[in-house]
Amino acid sequence: MRITRQAADARRGRLVRALAPLLTLSLVGVGATACGGSSGSDTSKVTLTVGLFGDFGFKPLYDEYKKAHPNVEINERTAQYADHHKNLAAHLATGTGAADIEAIEVGYISQFSAQPGKFYNLLDYGAGDLKSQWLDWKWQQGLSTDGKSLVGLGTDVGGMAMCYRTDLMAKAGLPTKRDEVSKLWPTWSDYIEAGKKYQAKVPDSHFFESAGNMFRAMVGQAPVGLYDDKDNVIVGSNPDVKKSWDTTVQAIQAKMSAKLTAWTPEWTAGFQQGSFATIVCPAWMTAYIETNAKDASGKWDVSAIPGGSGNMGGSHLTLPKQGKHPKEAADLLKWLTAPEQQAKVFKATGNFPSLPKLYDDPSIKNFSKPFFNDAPTGQLFAEAPKAVKPQHMGPKGGDVMQTVQQGLGRIEEGKQKPDEAWSQVLKDVDKLK
After folding, report:
1. Rounded Cα gap, residues 316 and 139, in angstroms
2. Phi, psi (rounded to 5 degrees) for 159
3. Residues with Cβ < 8 Å from 338, sequence gap 6 or more?
4. Are 218 and 307 in contact (CB under 8 A)?
5. Which residue among 56, 64, 166, 404 is buried most deeply as judged by most CB within 10 Å?
6. Contact by Cβ (8 Å): 353, 57
């Protein structure tokens, strides 16, 4: 059949009008894809927030990670130790405000591992394949009570030593070489005797900075600490806790304490001014000494801790369920706690790895710093974690410890007599149950 030109034009017009809605929908779909794709696209930008207390030595690592993951932006926020953990508890209770990755110190890990439903289970993100890398007790600390969920992966451990000022020890006529200093105080009673000699010769200074840290170190060396294994607070019934209290009070009464509360501006100034000769020194403490006592490089050294080995501090990284990017956050968390990164952090800050395979690595084992008179810190801090028999921490271990330390602080300040302070500590601790 023959079609005229006018008829053909009319037919084409009808066809275009009929297809126009379909063409419009198709173009809208193409445009949407071209303008960014789905939310699961590998090229979409993801911002992760990391919540910490103090300096974990992560900032240089973020730049390294972002070069390999250009779609990831990382923001770090920090708070004081106590405020950080109180804020995290509040964020979890209200369901808002938590970072994608949150650090939790060992004194608080039991409080949060008892709430596994508020954290992503790291076992769901491949962490189970990494279990053999960690110290067994460090891995166990990050597990939920029923063992079905891994709330946190360990960053560092706080194997204890004693850091001391060689110039101040010499001024008091005490030994200065680290082997001789270690022999000077095999027990805490010996440490107090050394402190009495120090105060007699250097009365315008103090033997140590804080009674609270001395108490914490002694309790940390006991077989059982503030809790029994059934989560009962046993501050009032555990003889090792009372013995630690009494020994610390003895040191306070001998005026050995500089009365400096850790992490305060006054505490920081104490390092700068050289106002104390010794400090209980978990590996992470070396970073604070080096940062805050810059003019004392070479005057600090490291000896054994009285009473043998022990652990004070160390942290875990966790993923609160408020985070919107759990896969990306889990990838970053695993990378930050991997052997290569833990080794870099130790060399930069002194935070000692929680991965025992690193302890025999020559770059760790032979590590020393001129600031600490070239003390073999890699060797010194490796011994304690391997020997640690971990205590059961209890759900409010951090709060209980702070309550006892506050009682000691009241004695230091002359606000209460020892018996009065102890009675109030027991009442205050009972309120935390």
Report:
1. 9
2. -55, 130
3. none
4. yes
5. 404
6. no
User: In 3D, which of 99, 317, 107, 59 has the Cα closest to residue 219?
Assistant: 107
Element (H, E) at 328: helix 326-336
- Residue 105 and residue 67: Cα distance in Å, rounded? 29
User: Domains of the chain, with CATH numbers?
Assistant: 46-157+314-358 (3.40.190.10), 158-311+386-432 (3.40.190.10)
Tens of pLDDT, residues 370-383 = 999 999 999 989 88
For the chain, count helices (H), then strands (E).
18, 9
**CB 318 within 8 Å of CB 111:** no
Q: Which amino acid is at 188?
A: W
| Rounded Cα gap, residues 108 and 97, in angstroms | 19
Q: Enter the pTM of the model.
A: 0.85
pLDDT in tens, 108-132: 999 999 999 999 999 999 999 999 9
User: Which amino acid makes up residue 320?
Assistant: P
Structure tokens at 376: 């073999």
Residue 142, SS3 per DSSP: coil
| Planar angle of CA 279, 282, 284, nearest 5 degrees | 110
Residue of 163, 197, 190 whose CA lies nearest to 381: 163
SS3 call for 259: coil
Burial class (CB in 10 A: 0-12, 13-18, 19+), 316: buried
